[in-house]
Amino acid sequence: MSCLLFLSLKIQNHGGLAEYFILKLKVGYNLKDLVMCDDRKCMKLRHLFLITIISQLFSLQLYSQSQTRFLTVGSDTIPSIKKKLGPDVVVRKDGNGVSAIEVKATRVGDIQEIMHDEFKRCGGFGEHEDMDAAMFMTSDEIHIKGKNPPMFLVDYQINQQATIPDLLSKVSEEEILKVVVQLSAYINRYYLSPTGYESTRWIMNKWRYLTRGRSDVNVKLFHHTFTQPSVIATFEGESDEVIILGGHLDSIVSGSRGRAPGSDDNASGIATLTEIIRILAESEYKPDRTIVFIGYAAEEVGLRGSRDVAATYQSMGKNVVGVLQFDMTMFNGSATKINITNDNTSAAQNTFLGQLVDEYLGVTWGYHSCGYSCSDHASWFERGYAASNPFEARYLDANGAPVNELNTNIHTTRDTLQITNGVEHVTHFVRLGLAYTIEMDKD
Ligand code: BES
Ligand code: ZN
């Protein structure tokens, strides 16, 4: 009998968690025989099998212990980080107020703590696949305002006045509210929890229901290596050019896996997308370009869902001509209703968004900064796509100076509808999303 043993272990590293899978074990003897057998050949094989397993597990352990993570943080935080982490942190590059650092995986929690306790920042750092990606975030290329998408230059014309106002009149606060209430009712939408999965399926089913009877629309789950999938609704167009509107569907409460209603962050963004889908479907809108709506998984733990989706779209050679991110659209905290994030975003597309607000919404708008890769638009921007993020209030002012206008209840049990006192603010973002979709779609 020929004895073949193919054993491979695939080690994947995600957020410090080493996961391993035995992919394939193919033996002339099956696994059961291997345990029971007593002929020489089989015993030898069993021996080999056990040694392989043990050595793989051993190297896996060494691997996860020695692991480093690649982060970017505001350069102002470096003295505090160095003080607390000592030799466990190395600064590789500084530029434009951002520092690219290499950190021992076990110390990431300490950085989170410094950001939260000392600098009052939510997260306050970006995580990257390798040091090159982290160092890119310090480069002038990202920080010079006026960066255009290198992939494809869209003609940002505004000429759809015959179609857009009618669609904008269909926005319903009642419909938006239903989505926010439903999503906030799950204990949390944490990326590893059962309710993180159930709430994702609810979104998929809602989007399927809204687009029922449309053979040109499909709604699918996009699976990652963790429990929670992303949801992707595709309105197939005539051309292969793709317009993406997204927002994250997970929620988190700092410091535990407990109750995280995440009404503003980010049931509001998913409600924004859902209302745009509802209006396009009910109006029987047939796109020229392909329009894709994405509910991203696991944003709150390092943009993991969107980084995965963006990498996949890029490797598939999808011609993405514009990306819009809705993350927090319900809190009316600033003098300007719509606040366009001016870092890690496309300046040309941002200008276009401002023009759309003036043309179709007639509400106040301005720019603000996040100061770091604060949401899923950054996953696309890092890869060179034209991404933008219209936001509910100013986080930092346009020059990066702190202002006090943020919904400070995010990532707590208090991120509920009561804080925002209704969904009126969301309607501006639905209308902007609709205007963006139609103007980007039709030349
Ligand atoms: N919605 C927030 C981002 C945000 C918060 C933007 C406040 C502007 C002001 C988002 O869901 C979030 O919390 N992001 C993480 C990103 C990190 C894990 C890469 C963060 O800021 O902690
Ligand atoms: Zn968010």
Can you offer a commentary on this structure?
This protein has 443 residues and is an alpha/beta fold. It folds into three domains: 2-65, no CATH class; 67-138, Alpha-Beta Plaits; 144-441, Aminopeptidase (3-Layer(aba) Sandwich). Helix content is 38%, strand content 20%. The protein has helices at 31-36, 40-65, 78-85, 108-118, 131-136, 140-143, 164-168, 173-185, 194-210, 263-282, 304-315, 347-361, 377-381, 417-420, 424-441; strands at 6-14, 17-26, 68-74, 89-95, 98-104, 125-128, 217-222, 230-235, 241-248, 290-296, 319-325, 338-341, 365-368, 387-388, 390-391. The strands form four sheets. Strands 7-8-10-9-11-14 form a six-stranded mixed sheet, with helices on both faces. A four-stranded antiparallel sheet has the order 4-5-3-6. A three-stranded mixed sheet has the order 13-12-15, covered by helices on one side. A hairpin with a 7-residue loop joins β7 and β8 (230-235). 45% of the residues are buried. The structure holds ligand BES and zinc ion (ZN). Ligand BES is lined by residues 122-123, 126, 265-266, 299-300, 302-303, 327-328, 370, 373-375, 395, 406.
